[in-house]
Amino acid sequence: MRIAESGDAAAPVIRLQNVDKIYPAARDRERALQGIDLSVQPGEVFGIIGRSGAGKSTLLKLLNLLERPTSGKVFINGQDIAALTAADLRRMRQKIGVVFQHFNLLGSRTVYENVRLPLRVAGKLSADEQRLRVHEVLDLVGLANHVHAYPRQLSGGQRQRVGIARALANHPNVLLCDEATSALDPETTQSILQLLRDVNRRLGLTIILIAHSMDVIRATADRLAVLDHGQIVESGAVIDVFLKPQHATTKSLLAESALEPDSIATPGWSSVARGRVLRLTYRGDAVATPLLTSLAQELGLQISILQGSVGHIGTIPYGNLIVSIDGSDDAQFARLTRALTERNVDYGVLS
C-alpha cells in the first residue's frame, strides 16, 4: 500500500495532540500516557510497541474512546471524538474494527453468527444483505468452508481469522489490532500477519498494530512509535528505526529479536581485525550490488567482513555489516568514506 509522503495533501486518519491519560489511585495519580503527539496516514500500517505497562493498550482505547484523555485531543478523520454526541460516537465506532488478543468470540455461536453480530447491532442491512456480507468477509479471511463451525472446533489461527472477519464486517476504515498474534505460535503468527498485510493492501485500511515483539512490527508495519513509561521515545519509518535506533528502549527491544545493530558487534572481531573497523548499513538496490568488491578494486583496499546480516524489513532489503579496512592511509580512507556516501551507505567507525 502506498503511504502518503510528507508533502502529500492527505490529512491524517488519526491524530493525537498532546494527550495525557491519568488514572486516579489511592495514594497518587498514575500517569499512563504523557504528551502523546501522533499522526497516522490513510492506508498506513502503524505499529505501537513497548513493554508491559508502557501504555500501549491505554493508547489504543483512546482511539475509540473506551478511555477518555485527561487532557489533549484525539481526532479521527478530522473530528475531535471527545466532542461527539453519543449517537455520533456509536456511528464512529462502527467504522473502527477491533481485533483482540484472545479472539473474544461467543463460544455458543457459530462462525457465521459471530461475524454477523456487529451487523445486527448496527441494524443497517437487511437479513439477506447481512448474509452476503458475512460470506464475503469469511471468504476474504479464508474461512468460507467453516461457516457453521463453532469456535471450539477451530484452531487458534482460525479463531483469530474469525475475529478479523468480524472486525471487517461493517466496512471499517480503521482496524485496531491489540496484540493480535501474541496468543499464537510462530507459524500461525506469520499467517495472520500476512492476512493483515493483504487486508491493508486490498481494502486500503488503516491499521494500528499493538505489539511487544519487534519481529511483528518488522514484518507488517510501515511506521512505528516506541512507548516507554507512557511517552513516545522514538518514532519513524520502520526501516529507519530498525537500522539506526536512537533510544535505549528501542535498542533493547531490537536486541531481544537479534535485530539491533550493536547486537552483531561482539568482542570477537577485535582480535581478528586489521586496520580500521567500520559498520556499514545500506538498503534498497545497493543490497544486490557487489559493494565491497567494487570498493576494494576501485580504491585498492583489503576489505574483510567480520560480522553482519542481510535481509528484509517489510519489503525493503537491507545490509548491516561490520568490516575491517586494511591497507588504507588517511587519504584512501577519505576516498572510501566519500565513495560510501555517494552509494548511500551509512557508516560508523568502530575502531
Largest sheet: 6 strands, mixed
Query: Would you tell me the structural class of the helices and strands?
Result: alpha/beta
CATH superfamily of the largest domain: P-loop containing nucleotide triphosphate hydrolases
**What name does the CATH topology of the largest domain carry?**
Rossmann fold
- Fraction of helical residues: 25-40%
Number of helices: 11
String of helices and strands: EEEHEEHEHHHEHEHEEHHEHEEHE
Shape: elongated
Per CATH, the architecture of the largest domain is 3-Layer(aba) Sandwich
The radius of gyration is 24 Å
Strand segment tally: 14
CATH class of the largest domain: Alpha Beta
Return residue spans where pLDDT drops below 50 for at least 5 consecutive residues. 1-8
Oligomer: single chain
The end-to-end distance, rounded to whole angstroms, is: 41 Å
Number of structural domains:
2
Residue fraction in strands: 25-35%
Query: What's the rounded overall pLDDT mean?
Result: 87
Spatial arrangement of strands, main beta sheet: 6-7-8-3-9-10
